[in-house]
Each structure stands twice: as structure tokens, then as C-alpha cells.
Amino acid sequence: MSARQMSPTAWGLLIALALLWAGSFFFVEVAVRRMPPIVVVTCRVLLGAVALYGYVRVRGIAMPADARIWGMLVVMGALNNALPFTLIAWAQSGIESGVAAILNATTPLFTVLLAHMLTRDERLTRNRAVGVVVGFLGVALLIGPGALGGLRADSLHQLAVLAAACFYGLAGLYGRRLKGLDPAVAATGMLAGSTLMMTPLALASGIGSLQAITLELAAALIGLGTLSTALAYVLYFRILALAGATNLLLVTFLIPPGAILLGAAFLGERPLLSALAGMVVIFLGLALIDGRLVRRVWPGRAASKGP
Fold first, then answer.
1. Cα–Cα distance between 130 and 138 in angstroms, integer?
2. How far is CA 105 from the centre of its chain?
3. Can you give the residue ranges of every domain in the chain?
């Protein structure tokens, strides 16, 4: 199935979404320097849930009353928000935001593998299998051969981001069960569910750190919750309706460069050459999975459908 043609409006929204999600790594990097990662994530999902609930109310859409649907939303909140957000926030206490963004770009690799293992209609094709292998070679290049001699502190942080990407892949598959639900309602519900899960953990981990909030920290938390979470979800579903899921995959290529530029401009980060080389190889793997590169190079060759 071919991808829809991207309109100028769709491209503009896609670039805006990439900037918002790249900004999430920047905001997290600022916030985790001043408060525990669990508290950062709790503020993120709480602010995001409140902002999206306001958006849903303005649109006049009712939240579901079915307990079974709320149960699925809570599971989605765990898989798509609470677990990956916490893993990435903790990881960014030990690695740069740009590196975290590059590793997070492996989400489609995990999605393809998990879809092959857990579903019957999304099997691995040759192009996808090659793309997955190439993508993980990029991960190995980024992490470096030194990790083979034993797990270093930064290796654990890098693995945490890969685990987060795996949870995102699981969330993508589980989210099929919510297909009939309004996307904005689903996003609001899962953020509300993740807020319920995270709040007790934040209280136990040291909510007292909120007493020392600075203007910079407040701005980072508000940006993280309202811009990089609530507004990003609104744009995500708008692009999905305008351009389709295959074109939406293009955002994966735009987030890491944006995060690297923000980190270099405002946080003094300077990514290593191995990280940039790993990013290029991961992108090659994603391009093979997407299939459009293969169709351009070999027009007569059947390419696999994007995940």
C-alpha cells in the first residue's frame, strides 16, 4: 500500500510535531537536574492530562463511562506513558538528551519485531528483517564495543532508553484495542491513568523537591506537559488523519536532529562521532523498514509495507 501524498500543511504539522517531541528530551534534561525523574514524569502526565481534558471538553466530547475501556486506558497509560517516560527521564540523568533521542528512534524496530511475534497480520518480510538488523547494528555502533567488557553506568542508561522504545512498541500494538475510541479521548484517558499510577510513586520518592522550584524548572515542566505531551498528541492525531500512519513514521527521522540541536544550543552537549554514526545507521534501518527508499532505488522490486 503506497503512502498518501504529503501536503504542505501535513509537512508543517510534521515538522512542528518533531520539534515538540525533540523538545521533550530538552525539557526532561533541564528538569532531571533539579528533581527526581519520577516527580518529573508525574508532573508531565498530570499537566498533559489536564490540558487534554480541557481540549476534549471544549470539543464537547464525553469521556467513556465503561469500566472495561478505562481498564484498557490504564494499561495504555502504563505502556505508553508511565514506564517509557520514567525510563527515559532516569536515563537522561546519565546520558545526553541527543543520545537518548537517537536511541528512542529505535521504536519502529521493536514495533516490527513485536508485531511479528504477537500478531498474525504483521509478519517480518525480507526488507523489514534487513532493516531491523541494520537498525540494531546502529545501536551497537552508538553504544560502542567498550560495553562488551561489562555494563558501564552510561550503558545502563542507554539500555533504559531501548527498554522505553520496546514499551512504546508494545503500546502501539495494544492500542489497536482502542480503535473505536476518539483519539483525543484515548490520549486523555491514558494520561489520566498514568497520573494515577505515578502520583503515589512521586509522593514516596520526594515530592518535597517541588518546594525548590525555580522559574527555569517551572518553564521546563510546563513545556514538557503542555507542549511536548498534550499539544504533541493533538498534532499527532491530526497528521494521522491528514497523511496516514506511513507518512507519520517520517517524524522518527526528524526528532533526533532536533534534540541534538537543542542540546548543543542550550545545554552545551556535543554528541560523539560514534553517536552520530550510529544515528545514520539506525536511520538506514528505519528507511529499509519504511520501504520507500527501496522502491526508489529498485522501482520494479516489491517493497514491504511500513509498520
1. 12
2. 8
3. 8-297
Q: Pick from 246, 224, 254, 255: which is nearest to 291 by CA?
A: 246
Q: Are 40 and 89 in contact (CB under 8 A)?
A: yes
CB 162 within 8 A of CB 106: yes
Cα distances (angstroms) measured from residue 90 to each of 46, 102, 236: 18, 16, 25
Q: Which amino acid is at 31?
A: A
**C-beta atoms surrounding 9 within 10 Å:** 12
Dist. CA 52–CA 231, nearest whole Å:
8
List the grid coordinates of 286.
528505519
Helices first, then strands: H and E counts in the chain: 14, 0
For residue 136, the surrounding DSSP H or E stretch is helix 126-143
State how far the Cα of 75 lies from the Cα of 133, in Å rounded to an integer: 30
Would the pTM of this model clear 0.85, i.e. be above it?
Answer: yes
Residues 6+ apart with CB under 8 A from 129: none
Q: How many CB atoms lie within 10 A of CB 91?
A: 27
Residue at grid coordinates 532493516? 131
Contact present, 30 and 89 (Cβ < 8 Å): no
Average pLDDT, stretch 272-285? 93
- Quote the CA–CA distance of 231 and 24 in Å, as a whole number: 12
266 or 296: which carries more pLDDT confidence? 266
Question: Which cell goes with 33?
Answer: 537536574
Residue type, 190: M
Over the stretch 32-69, which tens digit does the pLDDT of each residue have? 998 899 999 999 999 999 999 999 999 999 999 999 99
Residues 6+ apart with CB under 8 A from 221: 27, 31, 40, 43, 44, 47
